[in-house]
Amino acid sequence: MNDLLKVESATTLSELEAIRIELLGKKGHFATQFARMKDLDKADRPAFAAELNEAKAAAERAIAAKKEALQKAQIAARIEAEQMDVSLLSTVGTSGAIHPVNRAMEEIVEYFLGMNYELKTGPLIEDEFHNFEALNLPAHHPAREMQDTFYMNDHKLLRTHTSPVQIRTMMTQKPPLRMIAPGAVFRRDYDLTHTPMFHQIEGLVVDAADRVSFANLKHILSDFLKAFFGDFPVRFRPSFFPFTEPSAEVDIGCIFCEGKGCRVCKQTGWLEVLGCGMVDPNVFKAVGYENVSGYAFGLGIERLATLKYRIGDLRAMYEGDLDLLEQFA
Ligand code: DAH
Question: Which of 3, 63, 175, 218 has the least CB density, counted as fewest CB within 10 Å?
């Protein structure tokens, strides 16, 4: 093949390099040709050399030109291959989300902090005095059986509600007092609407006897429920808790059927959302408070969260169910 055609035929830089060696290398085509010169007549040598030099120079130029062309093509191919369209939709990994329980808890806490309540916490492992006795639940009180308690050694137990934080706060602080206490609580229960661990928020306000009334309690809870759920009717229903007198349970008009009656509200048109009342005098006696009045309330965070976010099965919250959790991303 003609030298120049050969150079042209190279499709890659390594092919071209092989051709260069074949033509211009120490034992290559031109070296061999020059070696033949000594066999020629002296007179013929200059013409032969001139022609050969010209051919060699042409081959060198062709190789250099081809090399540049191949390098350019290589860069172009690479740019083409590595090209990306930054406007394409991406599928980057999903980020985490706040768990619905934490989300509801944060929202509730924020509301009450905004109303000047102080944030309090207490131990998860409690004793019978703080969890029961001081809350007017003496040893053989039937209400103590309402709560299926996890007992430990030495009369220790896992707190069954956040109400003991009321007791701990009153025993270490003088009135007036406005507090909320969010946290985990434990009961031996497991079904569609109960898990052995769940969360409550306790609220307590204590002040001089003429400064705290049931009307205040009614107002703050109605206002809170409207802020949390939206504009649904709220009603206070007489009830019983050992630590409050009078006591009430609070219902909101069913947010699913708007009061018409459905499966979730068991056809009543109402959803029970929290318990509350005026602090029982026996509770004040247990902590040594005198001449005061107060109200208290307790609400279940999972209960409020499942309603607000319309989650059918409470247990799904604690099964790491991604289908559920990703909706909160
Ligand atoms: N401790 C109650 C429970 O676990 C909830 C509760 C009801 C708390 C009424 C209160 C209250 O402070 O006044 O079911």
Answer: 218
